[in-house]
Backbone:
């Protein structure tokens, strides 16, 4: 036990670190709040004493002795205390609770900041639901421990420090009597909490099963309907629901007793007071205790119930925050695997002056945490302004190569060079400005069309250029991507809002918009990873044409499935299982009968023939 | 920065608020009415709990009075016997109060659990009966939130909102009555501030609710923003917008914290008004009551009881105002659930519902007669489509994506109904059959394989208690017995694509269907799995009316008849050999795949 305790304590220290950090950060507000709280608790001792006075006055004095004036004074004091307490209650809420809200805000911000600093592979590894739950539940868990937990705990402690003292001062015997049942309370709380805690875990697990099952049914609704399984699924949910109900009720059975039992224990003190205190008054008159003391004790006993309950509550809050802190810390401990190395050898960068020469030197790659080797020694040199096409089957590794250029995943040094400089030595931001990468998956943000296309231009906007200065650039990009006219056709044109709650575009439109987004930042290297697959042939032809007929064109690497996309490239590179197996121009490769590219080409030709045959079949409706 | 092109975060918030209201189509009164009908289904815990609340309140109101009585009738006159009596009564009253407090909480928990279970099941079975058209309009995530979060909010309302509201309401009423009965004049004096307090409570609770709503919608905007960014993190990185987006997030984050602070402020102002009101009325009783006790017109015990009552009166008012919010958010959740329950199910949305008959024994003859169908508007997928498939015939369907072959299957399964024309099964309109027994007699393997998490057996038999001999035979034919006892993770991810397809296949085979449909998956399988699958298809379709939608033409080569679809029309039909001779679309497709 003694051996284990030091690391245990340091772990506890570790798991409460957020609490300390934010309590300290907002120490002024926390200080004011706690001060006000102390004052409230301290003043709370007085009202029963005033009641005592009132009762003593009415039992032992007469109107003639000016008792009326005393009563008036006591009443005014009572009111005065209520005013001060009212103000203090306002203060501790405004300062203490606000401090906790701001701490929650800060922690949430810190968490988000950290997420924005992590690399893509982190998000490949983690489920979005889990990351969201950290931002909502766990941040709130820590906040509650600081706001409600610390507050309730402090409140309970001050109560326990002041009220028994006042009671002792009035009558030590009665205090002992009233506090006799107190030790029962922690026992009740701890015993019940332990039972409830066990059950709550089971309840949460069961609730998780219910949501998982429901989600599965909603996702697989076609299977459920197709096999007419509605009844069976209903019965499954019913069973789960019944288990949930059974568990919840068994927890409620225990939980419903905690509060009332504590109340009962304190109320026993009340019965004791009535017998012993009343008996004293009957037997000895007001020698030992006065009527006033008797009445004051009635109030004090009632006040003692709260701090007892509060300690249990505080323990709950702290417990919850410990596991939340642990989860948050685990994310904070993760670092991005894309590290910016110092770049001493770099010439001063000037936008648009990058050449766009690329070199792959014996490039080997596997995804972080996965043993499978995707790229097995790629050697390739691409000249500035060259148009290179990558061709190969799904698992050939062509997408992977492309995703490495903007450093989405970590690559060893000495493998990829842009303008002769290892990409690991490029400033990441500059590198990503230079590489216009368009992936297969389209992702647009729920902002206006304009903002989505101008996604890479925020630097200029931040530097004070107005958006209108760039309208021509935006329009040029959307024209290049053959989407300008369609945007104009939308009701709000460039101001149209996209996304789940905005306008939805077709797959092809989205792809062209993502292309325009990449073009707008005028990259010196354009990377298209099967980026036009959902665009019809004629439009694709048109886009490629206009891309290539631009005056100062960029280096272009395209991965594609269509022959039409690749055949006009300066060079075609054929990949298979992470290796380059053919390289050359279209006429060269197409003439190598039996080769992979030849097959690919033949297939395409036939497909095109088929398509034209189909078009003949299609009657005009 | 203030260009009209920019979507401000404010408008992001606004849209979020609108989105929240989409599900709310009922009035508060309507939902309360519907909820009370559900509650009344569980009379026993409801009335039991309500009775105990009344009982407990009575005891709680009596306790201070007993104390006061003891002062006046036992202690002042010096009567030990009466002191013992009142002490005993006090103990009993406390016991009664504690007992009913425990039991009422439990009874209301039972009520809440039962009502939420009822609603959860109703909602779930309703969701399962909604047409696919409705499902495609509402993403599963949204609907899931209804089943989980909204139902949970309702449960919360029952377990903590209801009990607390009722208890406090009764307590306030009980104490008010008690005060006035004890001494009407002093009662009125002490309560002089009470109407002001009630007025203030209403005033503050309205503001509180508004403030809570405000911070809730800010929170959901914040979460929506973060979720969008987490999904699009790759793009954020590629365009170097991490800092910019973090700043936006932080702005929303600040707004949320400020909205929360605003609600704390309302609350912080509200609480002292209660302290002050209580202070005023106790002070009033101290002075006026004290004076009357001095005059001898008010007993000491009554004065003491007054103090106790006043202390007990004000806290419940605050708690009612406090829980009112819980009640309202519970009712909002109920509204949303009820409005989904009002969506028409697929049965209701069909026009023809003539004596839905179960299917006794099916021959398996299928006819499409001049069927027109569009998922949307005039965008016809099938145009005047007619075919006849004979019982026991094996038919292959071939065509490009969008040619309408999957749609044929959807119509046959009655996932959708055609806009024009009709579909006959064994010479009778499809719509005259009982929907579910129709589906149950068709074995279908869908293109997109969907398996449930659970055991292999559960997936094979759809949760039948045991695996019967027939299923064992199927499993042994497919050499699948080694999977028995295995557990599938979500969507079956711990099995290979090929295995998943085979399981989906075996599952359909296991229901011994009259009609057999295979919508082949497009994903690539290794050649061995493909061979096994091919054998299984032959096995399954033997002697049954079979529709095989193939992406690999090899699958349909041996079919009795191959139908080639193009843009919603039948353009070629015949056996493999016949179609090759025809030198049309099929033969071209065939040459392409052979390459």
Residues:
């Amino acid at each position: 036990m003694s051996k284990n305790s030091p690391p245990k304590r340091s772990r506890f220290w570790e798991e409460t670190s957020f609490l300390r950090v934010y309590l300290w950060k907002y120490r002024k507000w926390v200080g004011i709040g706690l001060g006000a709280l102390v004052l409230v608790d301290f003043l709370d001792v007085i009202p029963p004493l005033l009641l005592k006075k009132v009762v003593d006055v009415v039992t032992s004095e007469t109107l003639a002795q000016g008792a009326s004036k005393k009563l008036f004074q006591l009443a005014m004091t009572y009111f005065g205390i209520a005013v001060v307490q009212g103000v203090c209650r306002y203060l501790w809420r405004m300062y203490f609770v606000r401090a906790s809200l701001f701490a929650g805000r800060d922690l949430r911000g810190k968490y988000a900041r950290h997420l924005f600093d992590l690399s893509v592979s982190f998000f490949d590894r983690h489920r979005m639901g889990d990351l969201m739950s950290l931002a909502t539940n766990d941040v709130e868990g820590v906040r509650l421990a600081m706001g409600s937990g610390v507050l309730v705990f402090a409140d309970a402690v001050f109560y326990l420090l002041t009220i028994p003292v006042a009671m002792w001062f009035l009558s030590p015997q009665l205090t002992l009597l009233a506090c006799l049942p107190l030790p029962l309370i922690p026992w009740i709380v701890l015993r019940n909490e332990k039972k409830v805690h066990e059950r709550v875990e089971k309840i949460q697990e069961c609730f998780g099963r219910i949501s998982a099952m429901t989600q599965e049914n909603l996702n697989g609704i076609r299977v459920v309907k197709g096999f007419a399984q509605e009844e069976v699924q209903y019965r499954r949910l019913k069973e789960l629901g019944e288990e949930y109900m059974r568990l919840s009720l068994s927890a409620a059975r225990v939980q419903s007793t905690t509060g009332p039992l504590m109340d009962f224990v304190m109320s026993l003190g009340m019965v004791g007071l009535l017998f012993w205190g009343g008996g004293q008054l009957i037997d000895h008159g007001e020698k030992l205790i006065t009527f006033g003391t008797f009445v004051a004790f009635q109030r004090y006993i009632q006040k003692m119930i709260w701090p007892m309950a509060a300690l249990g509550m505080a323990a709950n809050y702290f417990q919850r925050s410990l596991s939340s802190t642990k989860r948050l810390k685990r994310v904070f401990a993760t670092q991005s695997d894309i590290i910016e190395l110092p770049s001493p050898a770099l010439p001063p960068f000037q936008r648009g002056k990058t050449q766009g020469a690329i070199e792959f030197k014996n490039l080997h790659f596997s995804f972080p945490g996965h043993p499978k080797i995707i790229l097995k020694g790629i050697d390739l040199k691409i000249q500035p302004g060259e148009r290179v096409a990558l061709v190969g089957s799904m698992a050939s590794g062509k997408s992977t190569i492309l995703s490495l250029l903007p450093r989405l995943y970590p690559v060893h040094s000495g493998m990829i060079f842009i303008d002769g400089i290892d990409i690991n030595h490029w400033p990441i931001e500059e590198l990503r400005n230079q590489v216009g990468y368009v992936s297969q998956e389209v992702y647009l943000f729920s902002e206006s069309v304009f903002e989505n296309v101008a996604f890479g231009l925020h630097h200029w906007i931040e530097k004070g250029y107005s958006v209108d200065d760039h309208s021509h650039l935006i329009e040029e990009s959307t024209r290049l991507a053959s989407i300008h006219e369609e945007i104009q056709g939308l009701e709000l044109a460039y101001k149209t809002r996209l996304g789940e709650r905005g306008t939805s575009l077709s797959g092809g439109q989205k792809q062209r918009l993502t292309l325009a987004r990449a073009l707008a930042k005028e990259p010196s290297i354009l990377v298209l990873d099967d980026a036009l697959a959902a665009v019809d042939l004629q439009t694709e032809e048109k886009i490629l044409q206009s891309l290539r007929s631009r005056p100062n064109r960029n280096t272009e690497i395209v991965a594609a499935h269509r022959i039409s996309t690749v055949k006009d490239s300066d060079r075609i590179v054929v990949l298979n299982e992470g290796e380059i197996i053919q390289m050359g121009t279209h006429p060269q490769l197409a003439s190598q009968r039996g080769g992979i590219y030849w097959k690919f080409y033949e297939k395409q030709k036939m497909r095109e023939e088929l398509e034209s045959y189909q078009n003949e079949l299609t009657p005009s409706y | 920065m203030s260009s009209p092109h920019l979507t401000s975060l404010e408008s992001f918030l606004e849209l979020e608020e609108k989105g929240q209201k989409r599900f709310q189509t009922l009035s508060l009164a309507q939902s309360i009415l519907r909820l009370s009908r559900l509650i009344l289904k569980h009379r026993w815990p409801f009335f039991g709990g309500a009775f105990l609340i009344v009982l407990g309140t009575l005891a709680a109101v009596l306790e201070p009075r007993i104390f006061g009585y003891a002062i006046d009738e036992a202690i002042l006159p010096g009567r030990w016997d009466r002191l013992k009596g009142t002490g005993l009564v006090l103990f009993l009253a406390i016991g009664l109060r504690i007992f009913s407090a425990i039991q009422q909480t439990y009874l209301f928990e039972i009520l809440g659990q039962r009502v939420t279970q009822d609603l959860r099941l109703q909602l779930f079975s309703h969701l399962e009966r909604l047409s696919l058209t409705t499902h495609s309009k509402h993403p599963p995530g949204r609907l899931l939130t209804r089943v989980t979060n909204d139902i949970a909010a309702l449960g919360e309302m029952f377990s903590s909102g209801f009990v607390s509201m009722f208890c406090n309401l009764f307590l306030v009423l009980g104490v008010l009555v008690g005060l006035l009965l004890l001494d009407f004049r002093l009662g009125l004096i002490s309560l002089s501030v009470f109407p002001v307090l009630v007025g203030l409570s209403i005033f503050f609770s309205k503001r509180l609710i508004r403030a809570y709503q405000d911070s809730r919608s800010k929170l959901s905007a914040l979460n929506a923003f973060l979720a969008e960014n987490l999904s699009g993190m790759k793009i954020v990185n590629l365009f170097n917008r991490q800092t910019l987006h973090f700043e936006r997030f932080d702005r929303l984050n600040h707004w949320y914290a400020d909205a929360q602070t605003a609600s704390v402020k309302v609350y912080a102002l509200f609480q002292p008004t209660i302290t002050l009101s209580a202070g005023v009325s106790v002070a009033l009783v101290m002075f006026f009551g004290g004076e009357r006790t001095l005059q001898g017109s008010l007993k000491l015990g009554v004065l003491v009881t007054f103090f106790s009552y006043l202390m007990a009166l004000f806290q419940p008012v605050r708690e009612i105002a406090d829980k009112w919010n819980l009640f309202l958010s519970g009712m909002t959740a109920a509204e949303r659930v009820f409005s989904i329950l009002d969506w028409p199910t697929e049965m209701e949305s069909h026009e023809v519902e003539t004596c839905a008959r179960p299917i006794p024994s099916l021959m398996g003859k299928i006819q499409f007669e001049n069927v027109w169908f569009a998922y949307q508007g005039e965008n016809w997928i099938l145009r005047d489509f007619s075919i006849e498939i004979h019982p026991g015939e094996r038919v292959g369907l071939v065509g490009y994506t969008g040619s309408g072959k999957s749609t044929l299957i959807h119509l046959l399964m009655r996932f959708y109904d055609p806009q024009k024309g009709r579909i006959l099964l064994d010479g009778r309109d499809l719509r005259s059959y009982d929907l579910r027994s129709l589906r149950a007699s068709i074995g279908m393997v869908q293109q997109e394989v969907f398996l449930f998490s659970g055991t292999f057996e559960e997936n094979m038999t759809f949760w039948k208690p045991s695996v019967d001999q027939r299923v064992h035979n199927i499993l042994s034919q497919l050499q699948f017995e080694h999977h028995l006892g295995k557990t599938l993770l979500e969507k079956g991810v711990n099995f290979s694509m090929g295995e998943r397809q085979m399981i989906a296949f075996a599952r359909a085979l296991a229901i011994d269907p009259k009609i057999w449909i295979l919508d082949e998956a497009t994903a690539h399988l290794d050649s061995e799995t493909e061979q096994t699958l091919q054998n299984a298809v032959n096995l399954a379709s033997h002697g049954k009316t079979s529709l095989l939608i193939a992406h690999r033409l090899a699958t349909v080569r041996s079919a009795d008849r191959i139908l080639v679809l193009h843009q919603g029309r039948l353009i070629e039909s015949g056996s493999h050999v016949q179609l090759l001779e025809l030198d049309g679309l099929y033969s071209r497709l065939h040459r392409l795949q052979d390459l």
Q: What stands out?
A: The first helix of chain B runs from residue 9 to 21.
